[in-house]
Predict the 3D structure of the following.
Amino acid sequence: MEETKPQLFKITFDGIEVEVEPGTTIMQAARKIAEADESQAAIVPPAMCYYKPLPASGGKCRACLVRVAQGSAKDTRPMPKLVPSCITQVQDGMVVENTTNEAVLEARKGIVEFLLINHPLDCPVCDQAGECHLQDFAFEHGSAKTRYEEERRTFEKEDIGPFVQLHMTRCILCYRCVYTADQITEKREHGVMNRGDASEISTYIKKSIDNDFSGNIIDVCPVGALTDKTYRFKNRVWFSKPEDAHCNCDKCSGKVTLWYRGDEVIRVTARKNTWGEVTEFICNTCRFERKKTSDWVLEGPTKVKRSSVISANKYRSDLVKKPDFALKLAATQFKNIDDSRPYITDPETIRNQSIENNDKANHRSLLNQNN
Amino acid sequence: MARKILTEHINVPGIETFEVYRKQGGYTAVEKAIKTMTPEEVVEEAKKSGVRGRGGAGFPMGMKWGFLAKPEGVPRYLVCNADESEPGTFKDHYLMKMIPHLLIEGMIVSSFALGANKSFIYVRGELMYVIHILEKAIEEAKAQGFLGKNILGSGYDLELVVQPGGGAYICGEETALLESLEGKRGNPRNKPPFPAVKGLYQCPTVVNNVESISNMPWIINNGGEAYAQIGVGRSTGTKLISASGHIQKPGVYEIELGLSVEEFMNSDEYCGGIRKGHHLKALVAGGSSVPILPANLIMKTANGEDRLMSYESLSDGGFATGSMLGSGGFIVFDETACIVKNTWNFSRFYHHESCGQCSPCREGTGWMEKVLHRIEHGHGSMHDVDLLVDITKKIEGNTICPLGDAASWPVASAIRHFRDEFVWHITHPSEASAPGAVYRGDMALV
């Protein structure tokens, strides 16, 4: 029997032509271009909430907005608004502008700003740093300064179980973990509570997340909101060495990446593809309990295809615009040193003076407390 | 007296009961439609009438019905959006509590036209007593054979369900409403697919406003062409306007579209003018989400034509010098109103009501509110005004649903038309933050 081949759609993305099957999204078409030619990786729109292995994800973060300059070959009108490329399907003859359009880049800059205004920016103590999509996104599209002067929002700390650490302040509400729990576990125990910027990932009435595949929400989290409790504060990502390995597991495929520090396995994660997506989810036994090399069959070092901004050494000082507000602040607060004070050498006087100053300071702090 | 379509019998004592409503000519449209017309003919009448969606967007209702997909073996649904929560709009509430059978009659006719055997009225949760009124009216209609199985012996079945919402503004957005109706969190869906293809329970669905549906009985009884005669241009028929603010007679008024704004505001039949001794400063013509206009742009458009209460005339001049009819929330401000405080208040509402799903709206609405709060309370700085304009630009058009636009338009328009007042708040912080302080600088008052 002869198979009927579907008619391919030809689209133009940032001036590059590509043929894709009907039903493909703009994002997938762009990724196809980048997979064929690695030098074009920069044209792919960033994805903070979209996760290909999780159907129905996407459309929420608006980081991947692009402009459709021509809807299709039949209807050559442009689309009136910027469209999310992760969920917009291609039409034959569609012309899409991403990095070549100023309005798109401006909107994307806005999205970075929105995502960061309430983000704690605690990268120095965050376990996700180095493999954080928000870091990459902010570095590639954000600005060095903030215009946000208000207090950042905070949440009450919540314990969601023995394996996963929740840092709600870092969350960008991509809903990926919700879809993961919906689609790969039998029962979802956590979800989004409250509304607007008070929305938070939480379990219903302080239950803990407890099922065999709960660890996968760590891998899908684009930021450091959900991290591995067994790996907490153990090492920086860029100091550990990833190795592909597998084992015979009766619950999952057993295909993992082991993260080594010296000879010690400090973390086990699922394997991620070029776009940072896990296609084969792993069980909690593999992730949290098999932390010896003898548990695994090693396959060789993991090939890191699309590295983060840190490991790609993009933080070179000549590339980073230093914020100048510290300098400005120092200039406004500058005072000449009062040199007219007598120079004291007598140890007894110094001691008395320091006690006196100490008392004054204590008194001040007491006053502050009372007020 | 202008022509009334919806509120003609609204003051008849006992109109909320079936007997009185029937005596006033009620349910004749159901009889006419089900006994003498085909569903296609009813849709055709709706198309001819040119009636536009009364919920705010103003999309022609007949055209919306025409888009409904009709695959074999899949149920279709009609959902009535009674989740009216726009600040300044209170017409549906009034209509439902005064004359519930009008909506029910409209629902029966519209469901028949669309081939829906189960229809929903999604009422906002705060209006529990209205839900009881509607449920009672449905029981009465059922007892008389106008609802339920085999309506009037025609073989057409219709079940009408009243569903209370949780009182969230976002659930007035049609896809969020459908999510909420399905029992989920009221987050708007990504479009496409539109509800006409995949709506409630993934089946083709039409979502219409209370007022739009309530027009259907009159359209069936008198014909779509007669309806199209009323009004002006593409704004056909009558519209309920919820008038509030500094006017003599606040309330809900039914007007023929095309009435001049000046007449609506000053005639004794309607608002009765600005309260005594005061002057008009600004006006929000269609509910809190449409752009605010200063006094000089309300009565006349930028071209010097009379501004009319119609979809086209109010949006004349685009957002630079125009506004929108929206859902008809007519909010009047005299010179004692502080625009900054009002904008902050609107902004606070949108911050509270954002669903938190997409980032520009979740973060942007809160940011705008905080900056406006700072300006209003005397802690603003000059760059805050431009910052606000920039935030509105970054939100507008980049969100999943129109709440982002609705949140940014009032702020953008207030700064566009009343920038001096914002600047005065920043340069005179102690004066401006005093209670009751209002900017008295140069501005056009009418």
